[in-house]
Amino acid sequence: MGFIPFNKPFIAGNELEYIKQSVESGKISGDGMFTKKCHEFFEQKYGFKKALLTTSCTDALEMAAILCNIATGDEVIVPAYTFVSTSNAFVLRGAKIVFADSRADHPGIDEDKIEQLITPKTKAIVPVHYAGVACDMDKIMALAVKYNLYVIEDAAQCIDGYYTGNDGRQRPLGSIGHLAAFSFHETKNIICGEGGMLAINDEQFAKRAEIIREKGTNRSSFFRGEIDKYGWVDIGSSFLPSDIIAAFLYGQLENLDKIQQRRIELWQQYLSLLKPLADAGKVKLPTVPAYSTNNAHMFYLLTNSLDERSNLIAYLRKNAVYSVFHYVSLHKSEYYASDNEVPNLPLCDRYADTLVRLPLFYELKDSDIQHIVSLIASFYN
Ligand SMILES: *Cc1c(COP(=O)(O)O)cnc(C)c1O
């Protein structure tokens, strides 16, 4: 058995052919033919009012912060167990980040602990659908209505994930908050290297989003022939990707169902093969609440302690299998802790210490999973 990496990018279909077509079309800057195809795909499949490709999920979050007019003194509620960009995008606008703890049964934000963090300065909540598992959006949207807040879904990991609300309606993740930010980084389910998307569900943001994404100009209207010259009308930056990137992404999108099906198969294999170890109390396995689908973004397990996790990762590595831990608690990070009072968030700390992510990528073989699980079993026995 050779070395098994944690992640491996792959070609799903016509990615390289589409890159060639993009170059031959004579336009490889942003908003070319493949960008338009990607936008249409997302708007049709997931019902976003508007989809805008960006160069990363980080950029999409930064656009969201600008669109919500986040400014100095505003507070934004973010889970402490997340990637830095979920916070940084709002810190860049001057916001103070207020961290929320994770759920006991899942690393995602504890929806029941959000309300106590809301103050008159709170402007937005940024739920993260960790591992592609939905946050309880009914609870979060009810708070948004009650306190007049924006909800920006950090949808980086949750492509093709769905949430079933109290009304029984199943809705795509990223279509529920006012805005949502997706990632197509090579470690996500659908990839283009570095890439992302802002999904706009509240129409009031649509026009300004185009402007902010085009360096604060109304160039998009100009290209549609709506105005006869374009100029500087707002703040903004260069948030749009090259059409070459969109061409690669479109090749992946055409194979989305195939990719998702295989990832879910692999995820289920991990779950059933690891069940005996969980039943014996050696490890804890992921759970998915009834209101969420599982998009198989990530397979993780929880060890009993930080030491045990370090030893397990080292043991797997010694046997040529690359597993990784995930987030370090943001509320204890050097950047945050040096300038803020550090809240007590024990569940976040527990996930930060004990969560291990196992290899999961399209080309992983069934036999790889059997091998990885047998190594984990021999570590514990
Ligand atoms: C990957 C990820 C991001 C960042 O995505 P980029 O496209 O690399 O900017 C942000 N938030 C979460 C939760 C992520 O998993």
Range of helix content: 25-40%
Can you list the strand order of the major beta sheet?
1-9-8-5-4-2-3
What CATH calls the topology of the largest domain is Aspartate Aminotransferase, domain 2
Number of strands: 12
Total tally of structural domains: 2
Would you identify the regions where 5 or more consecutive residues have pLDDT less than 50?
none
Distance between the termini: 21 Å
Helix segment tally: 13
Level-2 CATH architecture of the largest domain? 3-Layer(aba) Sandwich
How much of the residues is beta strand, in percent? 5-15%
Ligand species: pyridoxal-5'-phosphate
Helix/strand/pairing category: alpha/beta
What's the gist of this structure?
This protein is an alpha/beta fold and 381 residues long. The protein is 38% helix and 13% strand. The model has no long low-confidence stretch (mean pLDDT 97).
Description:
The chain has 381 residues and is α/β, with parallel strands linked by helices. The protein folds into two domains: 15-253, Aspartate Aminotransferase, domain 2 (3-Layer(aba) Sandwich), CATH 3.40.640.10; 256-380, Aspartate Aminotransferase, domain 1 (Alpha-Beta Complex). It is 38% helix and 13% strand. It has 13 helices and twelve strands. The strands form three sheets. It has a seven-stranded mixed beta sheet with strand order 1-9-8-5-4-2-3, with helices on both faces. Strands 10-12-11 form a three-stranded antiparallel beta sheet. The protein has a two-stranded antiparallel sheet with strand order 6-7. α4 links the parallel β2 (75-79) and β3 (96-100). α2 crosses α8. The radius of gyration is 21 Å and the shape is globular. Bound molecules: pyridoxal-5'-phosphate. Pyridoxal-5'-phosphate is lined by residues 56-58, 82-83, 85-86, 128, 154, 156-157, 183, 185, 196.
